[in-house]
Fold Cytoplasmic protein.
Amino acid sequence: MNPEHLELLVTRVMPYGKYKGRVIADLPGHYLNWFASQGFPPGEIGRLLALMQEIDHNGLKPLLEPLRKR
């Protein structure tokens, strides 16, 4: 895992869909799990969604808090 990817989770916004405009780190778990079951989109957004789903699934969201305060 690249530390830069963690920073992207708290800065990059969802470009489309029901949660368009919301920071990826703030997407609800059920939405991330839906992507996991249906398949993540290609490219950077898909990689970030997959990473966020893994973080959320394992209860590690609090680890992103220090990155938000930068």
DSSP finds four helices and no strands in the chain.
